[in-house]
Amino acid sequence: MLSGRKIAFLALRGVEEPELTAPWKAVLDAGGVPVLISAEPGTITALRGDWDRGEDFTVDETLADAQPSEYAGVVLPGGTLNSDKLRDNEDAQAFVSAFFAADKPVATICHGAWILTEIGVLPGRTITSVARIATDLKGAGATWVDEEFVRDGNLASSRHPRDLEAFCHGIVPLFAE
Fold this sequence. Notes:
seven-stranded mixed beta sheet; two-stranded antiparallel ribbon
C-alpha cells in the first residue's frame, strides 16, 4: 500500500514507546520506509507511561539534515518529555511546518500535537489528543474532540496509546494517498 514511501517519525528522548513502535510497524507492514528523525545523532531512549525506561532507538537522520520534501508524511508520537522539548525546538517547528505548507500528511498522537500549537496551523482544524493538552489546542484555534481517531484533511490524530489500533488503521491510508 505504501510501496517504499518514506515516512518521518519525529522524536526525542522521552518518546512514548508504543506510540513510536506501533505506527512504525504499521508503516513497515504496509510497505513503507519509516525513518527516525531527532535533534541529535545516536540513539534516543523511549519511556513507557512517562516514567518507565523503554528501549533505545537509533536515530536515522538529524533535523539539521532531514529534508521534508523527501518524505510522504510525518508521525508525531507523544510522550510528555519528548513533546514538550519538540514544541520549543525551532528546527522541529520548521520541519513540521513544511509538511503543512506542502499539504502533506501529519499524524499525531497523545502529546505529539503540542508542537502544532507553536506553528499556527490549528485555526479551523478539528483534532484530538490526550485531554491534558486540550486547552492548549483550543487556545491555538483548534476544535478539540474526545474521539479515538480524527482525520481533518491531511491531519490525523488520536488521544493515547489505547487508541493505537485505530490510529495505525487510519494513518496508513492517509500516507498512501
